Amino acid sequence: MTKLAILQESVIGCRRCPRLVKWREKVAKEKTRRFADWDYWGKPNPSFGDSNAELLLIGLAPAAHGGNRTGRMFTGDRSGDWLYRALHKFGFANQPTSLSRDDGLRLANCYITATCRCAPPQNKLLPEEIRNCRPYLLRELELLRRVKVIVGLGKLGFDSTFSSLQELGWSTLERKPTFAHGKEYKVTDTITLIASFHPSQQNTFTGKLSEPMFDAIFRKAKKLLEVN
Which of 217, 183, 207, 194 has the alpha carbon at shortest distance from 86? Predict the structure, then answer.
């Protein structure tokens, strides 16, 4: 078993945050009517993708009836519909949909992780919950040795990426970068960080994030990887 695989086993067994453990298990037990016949995952979501990836995506946390149900990040919800459609369009995924852990989806040169691995109530994380999950992200950054481009999905994903790079002593920036969709920063000698609005329903339904805007992020990422 690889070091990344061992790390994911630790993630799945994590119970560091009592509030999140209680919530994710409550949701998994009570379910929601449209998924009443599902056997919910109800545990932390392991990361997903190509262990040799040059592109790393860092999101917020699993959705209560998305990742918390299916056991895979950005799977079984509208955010995932947007994300995997874009990844497939630019050659980072073998199919445009992600419905379950056994649907045949494979990522190419791309790896997906999150600021926190458990679904939080009202999609709101407490500062201590972010801190509790941070060691997993730090270790992933150390193990994903080929990463050249990181996309921070949402301000929290973007900020947690920069904070993690700072904590590892890798960042070459003197001040915290400003979050703005499409903005890119050379955060280390070898890594570029790109800011993206999160493909949440709140952003996509209101038009804050459009499909062309989201596509532009992955077009930019692909171009950066081709140059490097």
Answer: 217
pLDDT at 75 over 80: yes
What domain count does the chain have? 1
CATH code, domain with 98? 3.40.470.10
pLDDT at 227 over 90: no
User: Could you give the C-alpha distances from 131 to 71, 126, 138, 167, 222, in angstroms and in order?
Assistant: 22, 9, 11, 12, 31
pTM score over 0.90: yes
* Residue 84 belongs to domain spanning: 3-227
Tokens of 132: 């509790």
- As a whole number of Å, the CA-based R_g of the chain is 16
Q: How far apart are CA 44 and CA 178, in angstroms?
A: 30
Residue 187's pLDDT is: 97
pLDDT tens across 172-208, in order? 998 999 999 999 999 999 999 999 999 999 999 999 9
Sequence-distant (6+) residues with CB within 8 A of 100 are 70, 72, 75, 76
Structure tokens belonging to residue 150: 């990181």
* Separation of CA 119 from chain center: 12
